Amino acid sequence: MSDTTYPPSADFAANAHIDAAKYTEMYDASINDPAAFWGEHGKRIDWIKPFTKVKDVSFELGKVSINWYSDGTLNVAANCIDRHLATRANQTAIIWEPDSPDEEALHITYQELHDNTCRMANVLKDLGVTRGDRVVIYLPMIPEAAYAMLACARIGAIHSIVFAGFSPDALGARINGSDAKVVITADEAPRGGRKTALKSNTDAALLHCDDRVKNLVVKRTGGQTTWTERDYDCTALMAAASTECAPEEMGAEDPLFILYTSGSTGQPKGVVHTSGGYLVYASMTQELVFDYHEGDIYWCTADVGWVTGHSYIVYGPLANGATTVMFEGVPTYPDASRFWQVCEKHKVNQFYTAPTALRALMGQGNSFVEKCDLSDLKVLGTVGEPINPEAWNWYNEVVGKGNCPIVDTWWQTETGGHLMTPLPGATATKPGSCTTPFFGVQPVILDPTSGVEIHDTEAEGVLCIKDSWPGQMRTVYGDHERFEKTYFSDYKGYYFTGDGCRRDADGYYWITGRVDDVINVSGHRMGTAEVESALVAHAQVAEAAVVGYPHDIKGQGIYAYVTLMNGVEPTEELRKELEKWVRTEIGPIAKPDLIQWAPGLPKTRSGKIMRRILRKIAEDDFGALGDTSTLAEPAVVDDLIENRMNRG
Ligand code: 6R9
Prior knowledge:
Blueprint: H1 10-15, H2 20-32, H3 34-41, E1 55-58, E2 65-68, E3 73-74, H4 76-80, H5 85-88, E4 92-97, E5 106-109, H6 110-126, E6 134-138, H7 143-155, E7 158-161, H8 168-178, E8 182-186, E9 189-191, E10 194-196, H9 198-206, E11 214-218, E12 231-233, H10 234-240, E13 250-251, E14 255-261, E15 269-274, H11 276-289, E16 297-300, H12 307-319, E17 323-327, H13 338-346, E18 350-353, H14 355-362, H15 367-370, E19 379-383, H16 389-399, E20 406-409, E21 443-446, E22 459-465, E23 475-476, H17 480-488, E24 495-503, E25 509-514, E26 518-521, E27 524-527, H18 528-536, E28 541-551, E29 555-564, H19 572-585, E30 594-597, H20 611-618, H21 635-642
Helix pairs in contact: 2-3, 6-7, 6-10, 8-9, 11-12, 14-16
Bound molecules: ligand 6R9.
C-alpha cells in the first residue's frame, strides 16, 4: 500500500464539473438533506409524470423496502434515445469496434439507435412480449445487445443478461429462474479470433426449458446453425419491422433488469434494479466520475454481461447523450496493443477498464502502449477489484503519461453505480485506494464481531452503508426474504456489502477484499460454493472445497481441494476432465487453476470444513495455521501441506 498522493492539476480542476470545494459543499448537502439533494438531481432525467415523493426507505429487518421517486413515471429508453433526437440525431451514440481490426467499425447515430431499438422492440412485441415479461439476453458485444436492452426498456419488459461466456447449464437456469418468454442470442460470438457457438449453447440450454420459450437469433457471423421451430431470425425480422414504437409509461419503481450475481452460498441471486432511481444514479455518476463533457468519446471495456456494462456502457452514457464505445474483442488480440490502438483510432477521452487487464498488459512491456498516440486521454478508470500500486503506477505513468487522473471506482452489482471513487477534478488520489464516497453515500466501518460502528478516523472492519442511494438494488428476484437475509440481517440497520475495508488517517477508504466466501477472479465474482457444487456433481467426486489464492494476473485464482470416491485413482486425465467439467457446468471463468487431490478435508468435530486452513495452504503460508486443535483429524493437514500445489 502506498501513501503517495496525487492531487488533480489546477488546470484539470478548473475545467472539471466538480472541484474540491464543490465536492465538499455538495457532499454535505447530500447527507444533510438527502430528499432535497436527490429531488434536485432527479430532474436530470425526463419524467412523463414528475415525482412528488423522493425517498421512502426502510433498512429495518423484516420491513426492508427501498423506493425512490416512487410516484413518478418515465421510460428509460426514451431517456437514453428520444430526448436527444432534437439536438443530436446525427451525433454518434455508439462506436462499435469489432473483434478483428480488419472488420470495419460502426458509428451508430442517435437516430439509428432509435430506429434499431424500435425495430427490435416491435419484433419482441410480435413474439408476444409485453410489459413486465422477462427476456433473457445472451449476446456477444454487438450493437444488438444495446438495442435489445433498450427495446426491453421501451416496452416495459425486464431484461436479464447472461454473460456470453457462461455455459448452457447456467443459461438454462437463468431462463427458468426468471420464467423468460424469449431468449435473444446470436449464431456465433467472435472473440480474440475464435468463435463461441452461442446458438448451439442456447439450443442446449433450451432443452431444459418450457417449449413455449422463443429464441430470437441475431446473425453475427452467418455461421452454420441448426434451426428449430422455436427459432426466429432476428436480423431478418428487424429489417422488416417498423422504426416507430411508442415508449411505455413506466413507474419509477418498475423493474428495469435482473442480473444474476454470485453470493457466498448456493445459487446466484437475481439482483433487481428498477427504473427511475437507477437511471438518475447511473447517469449522474457517469458524468461526474469520468468528468464527461459534451463531445467526449468515452470507452468502458466491460461486457454488457456484467453490471459495469449495464451502467457504464449503455444506460449511464446514453442517458447523458454521450458517445460510448462498445468493443467486441479482447485486450490481447491481435496483440497486446489492441486497447491502445482502439483509443488512438477513436480518439478516446475517458477509458475505463479492470486491474486484471492492466496487469496482463503491463507484463507484455511498454512498447505496445508507447507506439500508440494516446494524447486524447483525459481520465482513466478502474473497477472490479482492488488495484495493486504497481499496476496503478503503470497506468498512471505509461498509459496516462502522468496527465490523467485515475478514478478507482468501488461498487457492486447490488449498488447500481459507483459508491466510492475519486472525482477527477476534486480528489487527490492514492494508488490502491478508492478514496471517498460519492454524493449521498455514507460508508461505515463496523467491528466484525460486535457489529458496532467504529467512529475513529483510522479503522478497519466490515464495510456497510448507512442509508440508501437511488441506484441501490430493490430485491432479489422472487425472494425478498433472501434479499433481507443477505444484506440486512448480519448488521442491523445497515446495508452490508460483503467487503472488508480500512479507513486511513485522511479518511480514505481501502477495500481489503471480500469477507465472505466470494472470490474475485479477474474482476468477476465467483461463489466458492458454486464451484464446489459443480465439482461434487461429478460422479467420481466425493467432496470438494474451493478457496481463492493470490494470482499475479487474475488477482485471485481458484484452488480446489477434491476428495475422490472410494477406489477412484487420481490421474492427470481425471484432473483435466474435472477442469472441463466445471467449464461446462458454469463457464470457462470458473475453471479451477489448481486442483489438489485431498484424501480428506480438515473439519471440525461438528463436520464444518475449516476454510481458514485451506486458504492458508493455498496461499503457501502454512507456517501460521493457527489453532488446529479443534480438528477431527489433524493429520489430514500434514498431507495437504505436503502435496500443496502453489509453491512460492
Ligand atoms: C462493479 C463490480 C463487486 C465486488 C465488490 C468488491 C470488488 C469492485 C472494486 C472492488 C476494490 C474496487 N470490487 N470494484 N474492490 N476496489 N474499485 O465489480 O461489481 O461484479 O458485483 O463485484 O468487486 O469486492 O464487492 P461486482
